[in-house]
Amino acid sequence: MDLTTHWVGIVAIILFVAAYSLVITEEFTHLRKSKPVMLAAGIIWALIAYQYAGSDFPEAAGEAVHGYLTEFAQLFLFLLAAMTYVNAMSERNIFLALRHWLAQRSYSYRTMFWITGVLSFFLSPVIDNLTTSLVMCAVVMAIGQGNPRFIGVACVNIVVAANAGGAFSPFGDITTLMVWQRGIIGFGTFFALFIPSVVNFVVPAAIMSFAIPKSRPAEPGADEAIAMKRGARRIMFLFVCTITMAVSFHNFLHLPPFLGMMTGLAALKFFGYYLRITFGATRFDRKQYGEIGDISPFDSFREVSRVEWDTLLFFFGVIMCVGGLGFIGYLDQTSAYLYGQLGPTIANVLVGIISALVDNIPVMVAVLEMDPHMSVQQWLLVTLTAGVGGSLLSIGSAAGIALMGQARGQYTFFSHLRWTPAIALGYGLSIWVHMLINRGFASVMPGG
């Protein structure tokens, strides 16, 4: 049933636009982004079901909702396990120890600019780009006290590096994770985007580095070193094993990746049980194990409760909203125009530009629902552009929005906009490099 010109379709579009307008203005309204999209999703599907109730297919809407729920559930469980591990590593002082270690080095501003950028690029594929950006921003703010220019430019560099680093890893960004879980691109194929991602990061970083002085910051105070808590290294090892398990489940056993992640989460919980029952050690043992400063034993369920529930519920609302618009028929029309008339290359480049304004998650969900017939090279291209396009503006990615709050007044929309031409140059060159070095995938179709 084509409802694109029906009042149901028009109301659905209005609801989605209104809901996403509230998402974009979250920084000013302080209304959590999950609330409007969840409400819009429920109303959109209720209107669709109402229209179908009097047709020959009264259960069609319900069956479609079950399909989208399965897609969300896989994403939800994967991210739940990953976020819990990140929270556990944070609770064990791993990120604080890294921040303190970097802040104590006697490096110049320009050297720290490159160090924080490179670390952001390589940490983002393993942990999410939001956590990476927050940790690195804390580092540059500790180093650049009294130097707002350095902090502003370094934050731009961190956002670009974190977004670029997540683009070549299957679990480095929500967009790549969704493409991988759909089975469109194999695990190893994503790493063909490594060199284009490097170009996307290095080109604007090289330009911005000329604005960073070579002088050294003032010597930091002799703060007491921050020690990682007992079990920190073993939790990092378990996280690596969990990621390996998720990849192995998908590649060799043909099971969904979330099952490997949840199995790894169970391993973390068993290790958390060991930390809890051995918490009551003698004072000598606590000093030996670095447990001084713990005021409560490790609790894995506490770390589960600390995951970004607003983000997870936001994904639910977006997937359901975009799924509803697709069920109405809008995505078929959009796909016919973008990928039929403009062609996949132009369409995929535009996807990246749109993601700087809208956010890459609903854009990638829409592309996946369109399911355009295109080669692996083009699927890699849209994965790249959707991942790094958000760097063009500070509001284009979760990392940029978070840093505007963390470095308020020093990293702003306009301080980022000043470097948009350099970022756009890196964006364009990364696309050109991808089309050049990955042209062998132009004749390969997904699943081929």
Describe the overall structure.
This protein has helices spanning 7-24, 26-29, 34-53, 60-91, 94-103, 109-123, 129-143, 148-166, 174-181, 194-209, 232-251, 257-277, 283-289, 300-305, 309-328, 330-342, 344-358, 360-370, 376-388, 398-406, 413-417, 420-437. It has 448 residues and is mainly alpha-helical. The two termini are 33 Å apart.
> Given the C-alpha coordinates, what overall shape results?
globular
Average per-residue pLDDT, rounded, comes to: 86
The beta-strand count equals 0
Helical proportion, percent range: over 70%
H and E string: HHHHHHHHHHHHHHHHHHHHHH
Q: Any descriptors?
A:
single chain, 448 residues, mainly alpha, globular
Q: How are the secondary structure elements laid out?
A:
Elements: H1 7-24, H2 26-29, H3 34-53, H4 60-91, H5 94-103, H6 109-123, H7 129-143, H8 148-166, H9 174-181, H10 194-209, H11 232-251, H12 257-277, H13 283-289, H14 300-305, H15 309-328, H16 330-342, H17 344-358, H18 360-370, H19 376-388, H20 398-406, H21 413-417, H22 420-437
Helix pairs in contact: 1-3, 1-15, 3-4, 3-15, 4-11, 4-12, 4-15, 5-7, 6-7, 6-8, 6-10, 7-8, 7-20, 8-10, 9-18, 10-22, 11-12, 15-18, 16-17, 16-18, 17-18, 17-19, 18-19, 19-22
In short:
The chain is an all-alpha fold.
